[in-house]
Amino acid sequence: MPRAPDRKVEGVVAANANPNITIAGEHHSVIIDKGSADGVQLGWEFVITRAGNYGGHLTDPSEHDGADNGLPFEDIGICIAVDVKETATTCLLKRSLREIVPGDRVVTRPGNQGGAVSRR
């Protein structure tokens, strides 16, 4: 069951939970680099973001890093924390507008569950 986060936590997608895939979409799981030591709790929703230049190499988010290219970050997915460890969390992708790859940014948004990613 989703729970509203009580603080902002920012991190990145560290890996796909299934090592046999390179990109993830809805109903796949990803591992993020934040865990209970950072205050993450079971059920928290994270918004996945990426800067907006989608030409180039999809599997290398550093090419799309808004800090380097000046483009705004867009919400491209939502995941929910399903297994929280001390330094990492497994998240189930509830919604994705684009493929999710390691290096994509994640953030909680206290008081604004789900951000701007539309829900079905």
What does this structure look like?
The protein has 120 residues and is mainly β. It has a single domain (10-107), classed as Thrombin, subunit H. Helices cover 3% and strands 34% of the residues. The protein has a 6-stranded antiparallel beta barrel with strand order 1-2-5-4-3-6. The model has no long low-confidence stretch (mean pLDDT 84).
Distance between the termini: 17 Å
Which structural class do the helices and strands define? mainly beta
How many individual domains?
1
- In CATH terms, what is the fold-level topology? Thrombin, subunit H
The sequence of SSEs as H and E is: EEEHEEE
Helix content: under 10%
Poorly predicted runs: none
Number of strands: 6
Largest sheet: 6 strands, antiparallel, barrel
Mean pLDDT, nearest integer? 84
Q: What spatial form do the alpha-carbon principal axes imply?
A: globular
Rg (CA only): 13 Å
CATH architecture annotation: Beta Barrel
Strand order of the largest sheet: 1-2-5-4-3-6
CATH hierarchy, class = Mainly Beta
